[in-house]
Amino acid sequence: MKILVVGSGGREHALVWKLAQSAGVDNIFCAPGNAGTALLAENVEIKAGDLAALARFAKENRIDLTVIGPDDSLAVGIVDVFEGERLRVFGPSKTAARLESSKIFAKELMRAKRIPTARAAIFEKQEAAIAFLKESHFPIVIKADGLALGKGVIVAQEFEEARAAVDAMLSEGRFGEAGRRLLIEECLAGSECSLHALVDGKNFLMLASARDHKRAFDGDAGPNTGGMGAFSPANNFGAEAQAQFEGAVMRPLLDGLRESGVIFRGLLFPGLMITGDGPRVLEFNCRFGDPETQAILPRLKSDLVPLLEATIEGHLDHATIEWDKRPAVTVVMASGGYPGKYETAKTISGLERAASEDVQIFHAGTRRKNGQVITSGGRVLAVTALGETVAAARARAYEAVSKIDFENCHYRRDIALSAVGGKIVGH
Ligand code: AMP
Ligand code: GLY
């Protein structure tokens, strides 16, 4: 069997790594990939957004299954293009991916099905949005309707900040089409949790839970990032919350999609806020999370290929899934300055020394040059360790991190600390 993975981040390296262990897989390709995927797969120089070239490659090379990593490829309809060419592909269609690519579509569906989420109002006129803000309590959340490279959600502490966000979207056009409409949403308090579910149109199968660390610095200080680390399972999501979530979110969501004539096949990743009143949906993502995937997949004992196939074919009701009971902790090593301006092309040392049986070094922004691995992005590596306890997994992950070095490397020291009862005070 030949598999193509589309994307170039830590998530895609983790997918390639897991798929490479599957008995039936002969060859894996990754487009465009990174220096880590090149160790297990053949990197193909096609960008994740070049749908026509990707489909042509899959056809010419008789790829049996393509797995899509990034949200923007899904949002522009890569799955529709592949299916149009009769190529087997894992991911939701453009219409189904609107759950992530239009926050208004998702909110309206949640409203219609009474799925617990933050109360929100929808605006496309600046005057009306500002008038609404004048009557609002703060903090409040402003969300661009469309995909905005992770910058479309602003948690505004006071009126001026909220007004600036509204102006940037509705009058200055700084978010382009994505910010032509927006949501103004109640700010929820609690702790966040990332869930992943395989969804085959009718049935769903939950993967292990995880928690992300979105802020750049220790103690959840600093700007939002794509995610500075993760651990699995989540320490704020037990059996009771799971049962509540399946009944109150997954079932009505699938019913709602079906009633709207939308068939969702792929990976659904709801981001939740666990509040005093139970779980609330913050957002739906339609692809594997990054860095959650790097913490979840090392715990998956089952072969991933049959699970992806069951999702595509609508047989998830017959699928089973087995997990390593041991927790996993993932620490992201980023370029200094990320998520702002950062330098690249720094030589990375210590990669071989840091890896071991229970430690996986997933590459994100890396490439190979003159026989060396160098940095090429903001998030550079995701170092995952398994351990008998979260404390053991943390210690093992940080020990591996300490062996790796590149100039101006930055990482958080408090990943999964909340799960071992510790707390670093912000700066
Ligand atoms: P994104 O993943 O870019 O959509 O960012 C969403 C992030 O914004 C979440 O992970 C939360 O940290 C925050 N967020 C979104 N909606 C709310 C809300 N209603 N209340 C509080 N925080 C929110
Ligand atoms: N780690 C959050 C995301 O992938 O959206």
What does this structure look like?
The model has no long low-confidence stretch (mean pLDDT 96). The protein is an alpha+beta fold and 427 residues long. It contains 13 helices and 24 strands. The protein folds into 4 domains: 2-93, Rossmann fold; 119-186, ATP-grasp fold, A domain (Dna Ligase, domain 1), CATH 3.30.1490.20; 191-318, D-amino Acid Aminotransferase, Chain A, domain 1, CATH 3.30.470; 328-420, Phosphoribosylglycinamide synthetase, C-terminal domain (Glycinamide Ribonucleotide Synthetase, Chain A, domain 4, Alpha-Beta Complex). The radius of gyration is 21 Å and the shape is globular. The N and C termini lie far apart (51 Å). The protein has helices at 10-20, 51-60, 71-75, 78-84, 98-101, 103-112, 126-134, 159-171, 239-259, 292-296, 304-313, 351-354, 390-403; strands at 2-7, 27-32, 42-43, 65-68, 89-90, 120-123, 140-144, 153-156, 182-186, 191-194, 197-200, 204-206, 211-212, 215-217, 221-224, 229-232, 265-275, 278-285, 328-335, 359-363, 366-369, 372-375, 379-386, 409-410. Adenosine monophosphate binds at residues 118, 141, 150, 153, 155, 185-188, 192, 214, 271, 282-283.
Structure, briefly:
With 427 residues, this protein is α+β, with helices and mostly antiparallel strands. The protein contains 13 helices and 24 strands. The strands form six sheets. Strands 13, 16, 19, 20, 23 and 24 form a six-stranded antiparallel beta sheet that branches.
Taken together, the total number of domains comes to 4
Oligomer: single chain
**Coarse shape:** globular
**What structural class do helix, strand and pairing data support?**
alpha+beta
The CATH topology of the largest domain is D-amino Acid Aminotransferase, Chain A, domain 1
Number of strands: 24
CATH superfamily annotation of the largest domain: ATP-grasp fold, B domain
Q: What is the count of helical runs?
A: 13
Largest sheet: 6 strands, antiparallel
- Mean pLDDT figure: 96
Question: Which stretches of 5+ consecutive residues score pLDDT under 50?
Answer: none
Q: Cofactors and ligands present?
A: adenosine monophosphate, glycine
Supply the CATH class of the largest domain: Alpha Beta
Approximate strand percentage: 25-35%
Known CATH architecture of the largest domain: 2-Layer Sandwich
